[in-house]
Design the sequence.
């Protein structure tokens, strides 16, 4: 339990650093976790060199889903879109520094799924993006 | 369990894995179970997987955030992965758990069929289908005014591939066929049927109820668009079946049943469907049974599907040889080389129900009737047949017991 709710997770949940909305934005995407109703939207601005210049998220959810969104957003600022497409579940788990069972994994990966669906320009998010 | 992976199975060792095979039908009368085509027996490993799920981990899956829910979700989704690997599916997301083969086919008819078929469209089936691959299409044809055509069965009990080539000129939208007949035992040339269907622009549904349990089936090799099968015929429990589908098809299909677990979000007046496979799995699933299916897949893989197929090929050769030597017996279906372990037969002057009843007094369990394939029986002018079917746990000696019991039937009827 202590592991699951590491200080950084509680901290980012209570005091996120990258919550917000970008208007205008170059990329936006939102999706739900049907298991618990968590909802996350991500907005990005992208520079002429195809790097992310600004990124924020908004939504509601559990500590794990919102902390992972905040950490994920932080990690992509300045990164090329091509590199973001390569991100996988291991990257998110590494940021969180915890191990998760199949149910909570869905919480942790919602933001990555939303991010990648947006970057790929998909109509719908799919679990394939985070497999 | 130490099983040989080469040609011949250690059948006595396998039999020890199936508790029911040790029972006597009545005192002094051992069980000779020759009805695996209807449903197979279950090895201890499957029974124990379900038992220990209920004793240790029982909780509802997917939503719960507690240890039991995590364990049951992991076990259930683990079973999905095992099934995917077993049939060569590219992803576990293409494996949908249903109740059985019948429900899998109905799912395709309701969801894919209603969306993609227009009045006048042609569906090709075969004359040797089980009712489960006939009636859903009858119902859909009546609703959408579709045209059903049938690949004829030759007098030997094979599909008439020349006639099939002709039917394909009708530009069918779907070709749905059984991989192996539950009556004739015929193993149909699925790869060829699918290749020709695709050339003609049709998609394909393979009824694998009798093939997946008995020989290696790989959806990627076959290039099948849909494959349907049931757990209970492959050493697994009743109540769970599988629909495999090509991803693009599944993703474009609307949901089948509505309810919990199949949604992404719901408002009072609308809903958005979940992703595959959950989109097609409304309500609480047969969780223990799904886990039991996973254990059945483990068991079959441990024994080896090639070895199982080789064993059945051996036993059917012997069974046909012994049955055909009985005066008055005629066996229905093609020669052994074209079929799996199914022997349907008639005994002149004795109705199959009476055969089955008398065989039972000797502990021999066979099936009598039309085996859910009335049109096929009608074609051959038979009201019913008697059917003995074989699986990995059957021994040559059981064929002898069958044959000896048929001689007793003849004695009793003076035929």
Sequence:
């Amino acid at each position: 339990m202590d592991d699951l709710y590491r200080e950084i997770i509680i901290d980012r949940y209570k005091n996120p650093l990258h919550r917000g909305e970008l208007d205008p934005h170059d990329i936006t995407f939102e999706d739900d976790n049907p298991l618990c109703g968590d909802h996350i939207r991500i907005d990005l601005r992208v520079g002429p060199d195809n790097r992310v210049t600004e990124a924020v998220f908004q939504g509601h959810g559990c500590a794990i889903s919102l902390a992972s969104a905040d950490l994920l957003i932080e990690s992509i600022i300045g990164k090329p879109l091509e590199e973001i497409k390569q991100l996988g579940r291991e990257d998110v788990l590494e940021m969180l520094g915890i191990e998760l069972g199949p149910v909570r994994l869905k919480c942790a990966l919602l933001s990555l799924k939303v991010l990648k669906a947006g970057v790929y320009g998909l109509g719908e998010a799919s679990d394939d993006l985070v497999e | 369990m130490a099983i040989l992976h080469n040609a011949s199975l250690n059948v006595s060792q396998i039999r020890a894995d199936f508790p029911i095979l040790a029972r006597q039908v009545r005192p002094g009368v051992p069980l000779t179970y020759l009805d695996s085509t209807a449903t197979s027996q279950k090895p201890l490993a499957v029974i124990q997987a379900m038992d220990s799920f209920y004793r240790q981990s029982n909780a509802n899956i997917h939503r719960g955030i507690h240890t039991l829910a995590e364990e049951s979700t992991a076990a259930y989704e683990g079973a999905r992965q095992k099934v995917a690997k077993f049939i060569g599916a590219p992803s576990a997301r293409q494996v949908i758990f249903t109740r059985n083969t019948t429900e899998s086919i109905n799912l395709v008819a309701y969801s894919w069929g209603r969306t993609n078929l227009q009045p006048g469209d042609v569906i090709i089936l075969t004359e040797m289908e089980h009712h489960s691959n006939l009636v859903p299409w009858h119902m859909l044809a009546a609703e959408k005014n579709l045209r059903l055509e049938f690949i004829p069965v030759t007098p030997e009990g094979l599909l008439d591939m020349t006639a099939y080539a002709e039917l394909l000129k009708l530009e069918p939208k779907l070709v749905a066929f059984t991989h192996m007949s539950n009556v004739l035992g015929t193993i149909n040339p699925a790869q060829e049927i699918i290749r020709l269907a695709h050339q003609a622009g049709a998609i394909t549904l393979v009824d694998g109820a009798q093939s997946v349990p008995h020989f290696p089936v790989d959806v990627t090799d076959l290039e099948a668009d849909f494959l349907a099968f049931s757990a209970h015929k492959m050493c697994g429990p009743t109540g769970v079946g599988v629909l495999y589908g090509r991803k693009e098809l599944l993703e474009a299909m609307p949901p089948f049943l509505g309810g919990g677990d199949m949604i992404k979000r719901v408002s009072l007046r609308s809903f958005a469907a979940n992703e595959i496979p959950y989109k097609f799995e409304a309500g609480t699933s047969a969780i223990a049974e799904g886990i039991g299916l996973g254990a059945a897949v483990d068991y079959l893989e441990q024994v080896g599907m090639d070895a199982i197929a080789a064993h059945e090929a051996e036993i059917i050769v012997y069974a046909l040889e012994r049955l055909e030597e009985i005066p008055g017996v005629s066996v229905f279906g093609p020669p052994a080389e074209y079929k799996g372990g199914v022997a349907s037969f008639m005994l002149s002057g004795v109705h199959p129900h009476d055969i089955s009843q008398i065989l039972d007094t000797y502990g021999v369990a066979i099936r009598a009737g039309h085996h859910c394939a009335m049109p096929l029986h009608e074609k051959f002018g038979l009201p019913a047949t008697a059917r003995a079917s074989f699986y990995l746990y059957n021994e040559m000696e059981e064929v002898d017991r069958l044959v000896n019991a048929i001689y007793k039937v003849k004695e009793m009827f003076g035929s």
Observations:
- The two ends of chain B are 45 Å apart (CA to CA).
